UniProtKB/TrEMBL annotation:
This is ABC transporter. Residues 5-234 form the ABC transporter domain. It comes from Flavilitoribacter nigricans (strain ATCC 23147 / DSM 23189 / NBRC 102662 / NCIMB 1420 / SS-2) (Lewinella nigricans). Keywords: ATP-binding, Nucleotide-binding. Transmembrane segments: none annotated. The keyword ATP-binding applies. One of its GO terms (molecular function) is ATP binding. Coiled coil: none annotated. Pfam families: ABC_tran.
Length: 240
């Protein structure tokens, strides 16, 4: 079994406040791993440590074989990341954003050109290539942001609340993109506070007050908590 993310007692404190409290887990290659919890549960803080954006206070973790403490720059070269807030440049056109991120990832001009045409065709947004990103509907922006997070074929893509604020149809379309990436062997690590999205994941970790309160497959969690839905599982966990 190949694990591409491993965390052992990973902890983050801000003064006397413990945002992430000694969490331990592993993520398999090609897995869609859901990191769920209410707002403020510690999901984003944990993700920032795993992506090399924040140093742990204690514990250790490796991502794509690299240590989060000593090799954060190597981690960044092997992952894709889509932040909670829209992560593209709204004052650039769609095509300019694609070109910019292709260069950031170190892709050649010929590769960027061929991948651009492929991306525009897959997303069916070729007609808006020259439009400013700011003019696009939110759902289109989110799909484009995910496509660019995967543009350089990273081993792992981290998605922080990727479907916040979009309509149910767009959420479904977004998850179809996630499935397609996982089918290609990309590991997906996704945070969300939408409990129904847990059903789309291979395994789910639920954070409560900085701790991993439960970790299993969606069906395993529902069986363990004698629940009919992931919402019910979360309610029972929150009540203790």
């Amino acid at each position: 079994m190949e694990y591409v993310i491993q965390a052992d007692q990973l902890t983050k404190k801000f003064g006397s406040f413990t945002a992430v409290n000694a969490i331990s887990f592993s993520v398999k290659k090609g897995e869609i791993f859901g990191f769920l919890g209410a707002n403020g549960a510690g999901k984003t803080t944990a993700m920032r440590m795993l992506t090399g954006l924040s140093q742990p206070t204690a514990g250790q973790a490796s991502v794509a074989g690299y240590d989060v403490r000593t090799q954060p720059e190597q981690i960044k070269r092997h992952i894709g990341y889509m932040s909670q807030k829209f992560s593209l440049y709204e004052d650039l056109t769609v095509g300019e954003n694609i070109w910019f991120f292709g260069n950031i990832y170190g892709l050649s001009r010929s590769v960027i050109k061929s991948k651009t045409e492929q991306l525009l065709q897959e997303l069916q947004i070729g007609s808006v290539k020259k439009q400013l990103v700011a003019s696009l509907p939110l759902g289109w922006k989110q799909r484009l942001a995910f496509a660019l997070a995967s543009f350089h074929n990273p081993e792992i893509v981290f998605l922080d609340e990727p479907t916040g604020g979009v309509d149910p149809i767009t959420r479904r379309e977004f998850w179809e993109m996630i499935y397609a990436a996982a089918d290609r062997g990309t590991t997906i690590f996704v945070t969300t506070h939408y409990m129904d999205e847990a059903e789309y994941c291979d395994r789910v970790s639920i954070m409560v007050d900085g701790n991993i309160a439960a970790l299993d497959t969606p069906s395993g969690l529902k069986d363990s908590f004698e629940a009919r839905s992931m919402d019910e599982v979360f309610v029972k966990l929150a009540r203790g």
